[in-house]
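4.2 Preliminary Data

To establish feasibility before requesting continued support, the project team ran the inverse folding procedure on a target of 225 residues. The structure was first converted into the token representation described in Section 3, and no sequence information of any kind was made available to the design step. The complete token record follows.
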């Protein structure tokens, strides 16, 4: 698993012609294997922080390191999953799961099969995305995220739109995968119960510009690998 270090990270955007700070001097040390939940009011800068950690944007000030090495661009060891599964409608479930490998020019069929089995979508490999329920589409997106064995899984409210029963099933699934695989997770959620159920550490941000206002470590029996 990957450890992530943020040193005095500040970032902001031009909003309506005026520079608006979004993150201000954020310091975080995320150790390998932690399951982090990020909480905070809407618009405080949580997704911005995820984009910075992914390498989609570079902070205006400060440094972000992955195991001590500066993050300069997105990489296959850090996989993001957003609220909307964004499956390609003209690709089968299997082709969607294989997508990230397809881009790199080679497909490890055994790894694709394993990922599909892991999320319980065996038998649906040839289905089209529109034939899947919301939960199944999320499972397919999760399989796609896991197929390359990421060392860090970055989740932006991945289960926000699911009904509560499907969400509980997916939460259990996510927890089991994290226990088995031991990757690091950084998950943005608005759901405090979800954070309490899953996370080994809950970090809460203030409203914009985001600062860490609470950093809580949680130790539950099922958190131990
Ligand atoms: P959160 O995920 O906590 O809801 P975001 O990180 O999405 O918050 O956004 C934080 C603030 O930055 C918001 O005010 C948002 O409007 C602004 N913002 C985010 N991305 C951009 C962008 N690309 N350009 C301009 N403003 C942005
Ligand atoms: P590839 O893996 O070869 O890049 P694509 O994802 O681009 O495949 O497309 C997969 C198949 O779907 C191809 O046969 C392509 O012609 C078809 N296709 C691509 N884009 C669309 C689209 N917007 N609507 C319908 N079919 C599409």
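Position-by-position output of the design step:
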């Amino acid at each position: 698993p990957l450890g992530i270090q943020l040193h005095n990270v500040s970032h902001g955007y031009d909003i309506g012609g005026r520079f608006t700070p979004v993150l201000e001097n954020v310091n975080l040390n995320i150790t390998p294997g932690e399951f982090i939940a990020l909480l905070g009011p809407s618009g405080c800068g949580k997704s911005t922080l995820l984009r910075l950690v992914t390498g989609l944007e570079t902070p205006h000030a400060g440094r972000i390191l992955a195991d001590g090495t500066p993050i300069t661009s997105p990489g296959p060891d850090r996989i993001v999953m957003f609220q909307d599964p964004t499956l390609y409608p003209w690709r089968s479930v299997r082709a969607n799961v294989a997508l990230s490998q397809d881009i790199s020019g080679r497909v490890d069929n055994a790894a694709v099969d394993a990922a599909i089995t892991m999320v319980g979508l065996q038998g649906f490999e040839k289905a089209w995305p529109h034939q899947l329920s919301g939960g199944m589409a999320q499972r397919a997106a999760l399989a796609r995220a896991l197929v390359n064995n990421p060392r860090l899984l970055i989740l932006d409210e991945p289960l926000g739109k699911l009904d509560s029963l499907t969400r509980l099933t997916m939460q259990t699934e996510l927890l089991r995968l994290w226990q088995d695989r031991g990757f690091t997770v950084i998950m943005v959620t608005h759901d405090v119960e979800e954070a309490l159920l899953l996370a080994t550490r809950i970090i809460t941000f203030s409203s914009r510009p985001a600062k860490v206002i609470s950093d809580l470590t949680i130790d539950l029996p099922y958190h131990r690998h």
